[in-house]
Design goal:
alpha/beta, 4-stranded mixed beta sheet, about 260 residues, disordered N terminus, Arc Repressor Mutant, subunit A, single chain, 2 domains, 6-stranded mixed beta sheet, about 35% helix, Rossmann fold
Length: about 260
């Protein structure tokens, strides 16, 4: 995988969003270094960050990660333990020797010994490599707050549909009425609502809710979404739209709000 030039993914943020770093157009973004030797996992993280309006700078080896820190000045780093030229526990102090920034580590086997070693090396948080997108984003926001970097702001206030998904508190409301969601239903709603009416395909939903399980049951997914849809409609929201053979989206008359 080439590492000679920066790789940056920066999809347009919602017009009403406010972020931590000014760009050329007057808006501002959070810039995140994603360093991991697994291109598939890097791509998945970049996708999650992009959906949240963040800018990703990628590296596939420790040496290129250090170069990105110097050249791109990221606000935060996500470091995997699959880098080909050294373990994360050795890369962390080298990053911190170049810049003071929060570091979240994705560990394949985060037992107590591994977690303690990573924290002692300077990591701020450790997450299982088979992460849930909503949890990853919530942890990133927490690290950004601790570092004093403005994180993702609400993409608009509650609009006619009245849906608010608070990923920090892990709860959702419709017109201030709290939805009694299971953890799986919340994960699904968080991902679907983040698309603000665009369709989320079945594969993305399955990977988000059951990471690391290629055999996840599509019928079980449909059952969870049916229950979620009923709860949304019961609270006065238009509910979900099922695009057959494609995926699901929010059925909106207004828009979704995020915290």
């Amino acid at each position: 995988m080439p590492t000679t030039s920066p790789r940056r993914v920066a999809p347009p943020a919602p017009a009403s969003a406010s972020w931590g770093r000014p760009d050329g157009g007057g808006a501002a973004r959070v810039r995140v270094l994603v360093a991991d030797g697994d291109p598939g996992r890097v791509g998945e993280i970049v996708h999650v960050l992009g959906e949240a309006g963040m800018e990703a700078v990628t590296a596939y080896r420790g040496a290129s990660a250090l170069a990105r820190v110097a050249d791109e000045a990221p606000d935060l780093a996500i470091v995997g333990d699959g880098l080909g030229d050294g373990p994360a526990v050795e890369l962390i102090p080298r990053i911190l020797g170049r810049a003071r920034l929060p570091i979240l580590v994705l560990a394949a086997h985060p037992d107590d010994r591994v977690v303690l070693a990573l924290l002692d090396a300077g990591a701020d948080d450790v997450v299982n490599a088979t992460f849930r997108p909503a949890e990853l984003l919530a942890r990133l926001r927490t690290l950004l707050r601790r570092a004093g970097v403005p994180g993702p702001a609400p993409a608009g206030g509650p609009l006619p549909d009245g849906l608010v998904v608070d990923q920090t508190a892990r709860e959702a409301t419709v017109r201030e009425q709290r939805l009694a969601l299971t953890p799986t239903e919340f994960e699904l709603l968080a991902l679907i609502a983040l698309r603000r009416g665009d369709v989320v395909d079945h594969r993305t939903l399955l990977r988000a809710v059951w990471p690391g399980r290629p055999d996840a049951d599509a019928d079980l997914l449909r059952t969870h979404l049916t229950h979620l849809n009923a709860k949304l409609i019961g609270a006065g929201h238009p509910g979900l739209r099922n695009e057959r053979s494609t995926g699901y989206a929010l059925r909106l008359t207004g828009a979704a709000s995020f915290r």
